[in-house]
Amino acid sequence: MAERLRAAVVGLRGMGIGHIKAILALPEMYELAAVCDINPETARKVSEEYKVTGYLALSEMLKHEKLDVVSIATPHPFHRECAVACAKAGVHVLVEKPMASAVSDADDMIRAHKRAGTVLSVVFQQRYQPLQRTIRKLVREGVIGEITRVHMTATYFRSDFYYKLVGWRGTWKGEGGGVLMNQAPHALDQYLWQSGLELDTVLGRCETFMHPIETEDRASAIVTFANGALGTLVTSTTDAPGIYRIEMVGDKGAIVFEKGKASIAVNNIPTRKFNSESRGEWGSPKAEWKDIVPEDPGYPYRSHDACFYHLGLQIHGKRSEYVPGEEGRKSLELADAIILSSYRGGPVKCPVSRKGYDEFLAGRIRAAERERRRTEERRPGKKRV
Ligand SMILES: NC(=O)c1ccc[n+]([C@@H]2O[C@H](COP(=O)([O-])OP(=O)(O)OC[C@H]3O[C@@H](n4cnc5c(N)ncnc54)[C@H](O)[C@@H]3O)[C@@H](O)[C@H]2O)c1
Predict the structure, then answer these.
(1) Which domains does the chain have, with CATH numbers?
(2) Among 65, 72, 90, which residue's Cα sits nearest to residue 9?
(3) Is ligand 1 within 6 A of the CB of residue 38?
């Protein structure tokens, strides 16, 4: 393989431009070789602007270009077919979050790249933020002890116009979910990655509260983790201002992240020990809250450039912090479990049944299609046949 990796981007309207800029920000590692979008106007505009060949189909691009890496920024339901096609062509992949809408698609992507011996990485750029890395390190080092409770609030605001502007948003067919698929994946990833907890069961509740969309714009869940820890979470596109907060409580203390800052409190006596040994009617372990000072990761990249940088290191067989497909799948497993649980009206055991989820999603897509046709029929002026 050439020292400089030949990279192409597929899906160019929104995030794909961010991918191009990240590739161009790493000129020693990458060369932008081609771009691809099914929309001819988008493909033409972007290929002219960046002076590379534009393709309307990934299959054509893979046939005509000698590529090392393809980054995928299409809507999520297309991630699987793009990633699998790249694996079959022996091309490494960086795929946007969520890596797919259904966990079975994520399984297929991981399997295809394993078989091909190529690298599959998922865009979770928040993992490269110095503060997020430092929090994870403190938890892994056991500074707050075994985690017993985690909470995530990740609320955002999106208008009706946002959903109407781009047809696939908020639809079952176009993204396979709502806030859990589109806005929440980064927060869900942080929730699981920082705490290091493994899912056991999930009781979820999804609502379409404010927007005229098919999928959830508000979701909450109670999560039981494999070690018995309790998880709670809420996410929405209906809150203004949005709030982003993660709380982690362990046997030796707690960490709270909010508004870009984090603090830690370490107990003078572990909670369980204090609980069993204390002979006082009142009182609790003593702790002082202190700000967490982020550690320098030792590389200058913080966002999509970091995703490409670590993918490049991984491809070249160097030590990297790339996010493998198996890691990217974790937050999707949680999102799917919340959605499935809400529709079934009871807890869902993880890993989510692949067959169960696929049948559920296909059913939602069919039901939404029927509803769309009925609405169309009822439109004033529409002739009944
Ligand atoms: N990491 C992040 O912070 C972040 C931010 C925004 C979006 N995203 C993710 O990026 C992905 C794209 O989102 P977006 O907002 O840029 O979407 P978008 O609709 O703005 O752009 C998607 C583009 O993909 C093209 N496309 C669709 N199907 C295609 C196919 N089969 N082959 C080639 N091109 C195809 C469309 O024509 C469009 O130009 C989503 O999965 C989204 O979740 C990630």
Answers:
(1) 5-124+301-323 (3.40.50.720), 127-297+331-344 (3.30.360.10)
(2) 72
(3) yes
